[in-house]
Amino acid sequence: MLRHFPDIDVEITHNKRDYLIVSYAFVAVTLCFLIDSVASIGLQYALGVAGWLSLFVMLWGECKYVRAQVIVAVTFATIGENFASIFMAGYTYRLENVPAFVPPGHGIVYLTAVILGRSGFFLKYARKLVVIVVLVGAIWSICALTGLIGRSDEIGTLLFCIYLLYLFKGRSPMVYLGAFFITTWVELIGTSLGTWNWAAIDPASTLTQGNPPSGVAAWYCLVDAVAMVCAAPVLHAVVKIMYLLGFKQQAEVVKHKI
C-alpha cells in the first residue's frame, strides 16, 4: 500500500526555501481570509493582485514542469469554482461571487502541497504522517457523519474514502499527504471566518455535508491528477508556439527540460 512512498532509509535534504514558502502560504492564507471577512469588492481585487504576485514569486525557483502543473491546477480549479459555487451553489462565498484572490489562491495551495510533499520533514516522517492523517481524518469523518461535531456530513465521509484511495493507490501520495494539511487549514480558517459556507445539502448528490466537509482534501487530489496528466502537453504546446513565433533557441531549452 505504501509502494509509492519514499523508502524508510531515503537520504534527506532540508531546503530552507521550501520551509519558507510553506510558512508564508499558511500565514498568507490566514491574513487573506481575515481581511476578506470585512472586505469590499474593491479590496478583494487588491487581494487578488497580491495573490498573483505571491504566486509568481513562489514559482520563481521552480522547474518548468512544476510551473506547468500549477498553471493547469489554477485553470482547472477556477473552472471548478465557477461550476460548483456559482452554478451548483454547493458552497457560497461571502459576496456571492468567486473572489479575485481565489484563482491564485488555488495555485498557492497546490504548490504548497507539492512543496510539503517533497520537503525533508515529510520525506523523513512520511509513514508517521500517514498514520496521523488517517486517524485524524477518520475520527473527523465519523464524528461529523454521526453529528457529534457540527451538522451531518455524509459527503465528507465519501470524500475521505476517496482521499484514502488516492493516498494509498495514487502515484503522488506525498502531494496528497501535503494537501491534507494545507487544505484542512484553508477550509477551517475560511469557513470559520465566513469567507465561504458549504450548503447543508450537496446539490449534486443530495447528501448532507459539513461546513467544511471532512474529506475535502480529496478535491485537491483530483486537481493534482489533472495537473500531472496535462502538464507535459501544456509544455509541448508552449514549445510549438515558441517555434512558430521564431524563438527557436528558447524553445530548444524548454524542450530539453520537459
Observed structural traits:
258 residues, mainly alpha, 10 helices, 69% helix, 2% strand, globular
Give the arrangement of secondary structure elements.
Elements: H1 16-36, H2 41-59, H3 64-87, E1 91-93, H4 102-118, H5 120-124, H6 126-145, H7 154-169, H8 173-192, E2 196-198, H9 217-244, H10 248-256
Antiparallel strand pairs: 1-2
Report on this structure.
The chain contains ten helices and two strands. It has helices spanning 16-36, 41-59, 64-87, 102-118, 120-124, 126-145, 154-169, 173-192, 217-244, 248-256, and strands spanning 91-93, 196-198. The protein has a two-stranded antiparallel ribbon. It is globular and about 60 Å long. By secondary structure, the chain is mainly alpha-helical. The chain has one domain (16-256). The longest helix is centred in the last third of the chain and has 28 residues, at 217-244.
Strand-and-helix sequence, N→C?
Answer: HHHEHHHHHEHH
Distance between the termini: 29 Å
Describe the main β-sheet briefly.
Answer: 2 strands, antiparallel
- The spatial strand order of the largest sheet comes to 1-2
Give the strand content.
under 5%
Radius of gyration: 19 Å
Number of domain units: 1
Helix content: 55-70%
Task: Please give the number of β-strands.
Answer: 2
Regions with little confidence, pLDDT below 50 for 5+ residues: none
